[in-house]
């Protein structure tokens, strides 16, 4: 297998998707061929879906909270923690996953691009999002104790913008001029959802070395210089040479 060299001249941006959590037992999105109880995920994980049937949306996320509550990080998550320890502030992890497994594994320099399954916010007022593991399987809609409005999971839904602070943090890392060379590695993502799917094009504009680790070819595989086909839990632990 080709080796990814992580030395003192390297700045590494990693993007992870649902495939990195698959070996921990968290189902991927396309693995469910995009359906949940015969609803397209886009119809449930969207402002329109919440407007139409907030109880259904809470059933969906309650199931995911229950499913994600007792899963454990896998060797792919652990490899990323080692890479971060080796590179320090020359490492940044942008994840599309909302399961919190990177934090549970010990990753600290993480951008939760799509929010966090175990955080809740109010759909109707600007109260601060708060940590929340509560589940509502019968489909009740929890109410905001500040405004009485509807609470919702603090997840970036289809059609919603990512937090500008998150995009700025990633953009700063990509455009940093500190004499290091940028390496970009995407793992376990189908390259189907933007803007995450466009990161590979953004980093190529600054001449980054690009890697994709995925169990199958992805929508944007040809945009990567290196494609290592395999399970992230098996590939990531031996892919990098820490110099
Ligand atoms: P997907 O389910 O679209 O893609 C997962 C990718 O990982 C697929 O290409 C699989 O082939 C691959 N894969 C599966 N198991 C793997 C493993 N063990 N090792 C390596 N690769 C593996 O998930 P995402 O690309 O993350 O959005 O989906 C992006 C977004 O679409 C998600 O963040 C979610 C979803 O709707 C929100 O939640 C807002």
From TrEMBL:
Q: Does the keyword Cytoplasm apply?
A: yes
Q: What reaction(s) does this enzyme catalyze?
A: N(6)-succinyl-L-lysyl-[protein] + NAD(+) + H2O = 2''-O-succinyl-ADP-D-ribose + nicotinamide + L-lysyl-[protein]; N(6)-acetyl-L-lysyl-[protein] + NAD(+) + H2O = 2''-O-acetyl-ADP-D-ribose + nicotinamide + L-lysyl-[protein]
- Entry keyword set: Cytoplasm, Metal-binding, NAD, Transferase, Zinc
Instruction: Name any GO cellular component annotation.
Output: cytoplasm
According to the UniProt entry, its GO molecular function terms are: histone deacetylase activity, NAD-dependent; NAD+ binding; protein-malonyllysine demalonylase activity; protein-succinyllysine desuccinylase activity; zinc ion binding
Q: Which domain of life is it from?
A: Bacteria
Question: Could you name the active-site residues?
Answer: 114
Q: Which cofactor does it need?
A: Zn(2+)
Question: For this protein, what does the record note about how its cofactor is bound?
Answer: Binds 1 zinc ion per subunit.
Please tell me where this protein is predominantly located.
cytoplasm
Intracellular or extracellular location(s): Cytoplasm
The EC designation for this entry is 2.3.1.286
Which residues are involved in binding substrate?
A: 61, 64
Q: Which Gene3D superfamilies match?
A: SIR2/SIRT2 'Small Domain, TPP-binding domain
Deacetylase sirtuin-type domain: residues covered: 1-243
Which InterPro entries would you find in this protein's record? DHS-like_NAD/FAD-binding_dom (IPR029035), NAD-dep_sirtuin_deacylases (IPR050134), Sirtuin (IPR003000), Sirtuin_cat_small_dom_sf (IPR026591), Sirtuin_class_III (IPR027546), Ssirtuin_cat_dom (IPR026590)
Keyword Membrane annotated = no
Q: Which PROSITE patterns match?
A: SIRTUIN
- Give the residues the record marks as binding NAD(+): 17-36, 96-99, 188-190, 214-216, 232
Q: Which Pfam families match?
A: SIR2 (PF02146)
Main function: NAD-dependent lysine deacetylase and desuccinylase that specifically removes acetyl and succinyl groups on target proteins. Modulates the activities of several proteins which are inactive in their acylated form.
What family is this? Belongs to the sirtuin family. Class III subfamily.
PANTHER family noted in UniProt? NAD-DEPENDENT PROTEIN DEACYLASE, NAD-DEPENDENT PROTEIN DEACYLASE SIRTUIN-5, MITOCHONDRIAL-RELATED
* Domain remark text: 2 residues (Tyr-61 and Arg-64) present in a large hydrophobic pocket are probably involved in substrate specificity. They are important for desuccinylation activity, but dispensable for deacetylation activity.
Q: What is this protein called?
A: NAD-dependent protein deacylase
Lineage of the source organism?
A: Bacteria, Pseudomonadati, Myxococcota, Myxococcia, Myxococcales
| Gene name for this UniProt entry | cobB
